[in-house]
Amino acid sequence: MLTHAENAAEPTTEENKRREKETIPETVAGLAAVLVGAMFILSFIIQQFEIPSSSMENTLLIGDHLFVDRLTPTGKAGAASFLMPYREIHRGDIAVFPSPAQPGLYLVKRIIGVPGDRIHLRDGKVFLNGVEQDEKYVIRGVEPYNPYRDNFPAVSSDFSTQVTEEWAKALPHHVHSGDLVVPPDSYFAMGDNRDVSLDSRYWGFVPRQNIFGSPLFIAWSLKQSASDFPQDASLPERTAMFAKTAAHFFPLTRWDRVFRLVH
What we know:
Blueprint: H1 4-9, H2 13-45, E1 46-50, E2 64-69, E3 94-98, E4 106-113, E5 118-122, E6 125-128, E7 131-132, H3 147-150, H4 165-170, E8 175-176, E9 179-181, E10 186-190, H5 200-203, E11 206-207, E12 214-221, H6 235-247, H7 249-252, E13 260-261
């Protein structure tokens, strides 16, 4: 049996109803706060991207879905740095930025050179400030020798057809004693899959202000190919591809890559 004191402490039915009425707007306000917070994070701090090409293999594979940190690698400084964890871009960082050659397309490449660096390639190997780099993340395919690609910028007179017109004109002005010199507030970026990557060798430097973010980790990865990402696909074709992926979602997933950090 309950004592008199316990009976007095127990809320009445009337009080319960009043509390239920009071919690409805509180619940709505709480859900709204969570939604606003999530939208803020997805808009300004973290954003999702998917990899449609093999230019960053084996670091990133076609079908990898990334969460990209938009905050810390933007290279901003000043008073705001005391409140937000901004930092400069370093050599070896992987960056996301809009394509200088194709509007509307975002690229994921590795930063090879920072302002002031002197770069050249000899038989496909990168020399940075006169020192050959030991790039363990780089893979080389079976593509035939390409003088422009593999001995950049020494053979810059023999331009590849994939070089943009703007870069073909600007490149000679940045070459000194056989090295490409990275100008202030700019970066030189390359893909890890060197033989197939269209990168700074073909369209030039990445301006500091164009750095969008840096990949954090692979949120999900699907066994896909470049044909699954046609740029000119119609809406029905995209819908059919989405339905196919959804129907085979679990067997298509590369489970060993889920939540893998990107280095």
